[in-house]
Amino acid sequence: MRALRTLLIVVVVLGGLFVLADRLALHFAEGEVADRLKTSENLSATPDVTIAGFPFLTQVATGTLDDVTIGIDDYEADTGAAAGDGAPSSIRIENLEARMKGVEFSGDFSSATAADATGTARISYAELLKTAKAEPTQVAPGATAQVIGLSDGGGGKIKVALKATVLGVRVPGPLYVMSTVAVEDDTVKVHADALPKFGSIELGERTIRSITDFQQRIDDLPGGIRLDKVEAAKNGVEITVKGSDVKLAG
């Protein structure tokens, strides 16, 4: 009985030491991946990195992590805009969270690549508004219009607010247009479902759509992930991302 009790105590102690070593190794690895990602993506703040699964050390032995989640509060994504063309050179992506599966890594975590990744993020309406025409634009002789605001229109639509003037007189109140938002070839596109009326003035569709419709390309997301879907929501455009062979470091 005494020998059995001693054996049980040894097993418990060793088990506790293993768990402690496993958690310490996990904490170190999460920190290393976060630091590498901050450097490789030139981030202003260290991202959150969570490695799932227990025990961690058995994953280390195989050289592959089953499940890694990356969280970046703010990310400045390249828009591909040429200098001087009036378009913003970058756009701020908020609350980017990506879940990586099958992450193969080197022993010192200098390189890490995920087989697959999916995630979510948001572009605020204020940020997306920067891609619309900021100056009043002539849409007919004596009539101008410009986009002055974006908001949630419900049902996955964006409500676009326009300010219009006719013969130098401002049309009372904003004109509102319900628009569809979609993604195509890494580009977020906003397209008016129906065009606004400017009293009795006849407007060509192409002319007015040069104001109501706009788009923004988003390049260079972390690790090579790409836009998949977009949908208008309360606080901005919610986006989903996906990718394969996504580099976390190296």
TrEMBL record:
InterPro entries, alphabetized: DUF2993
The cross-references to Pfam families, in alphabetical order and at most eight, read: LmeA (PF11209)
Stated name of the protein: DUF2993 domain-containing protein
What lineage does the source organism belong to? Answer: Bacteria, Bacillati, Actinomycetota, Actinomycetes, Kitasatosporales
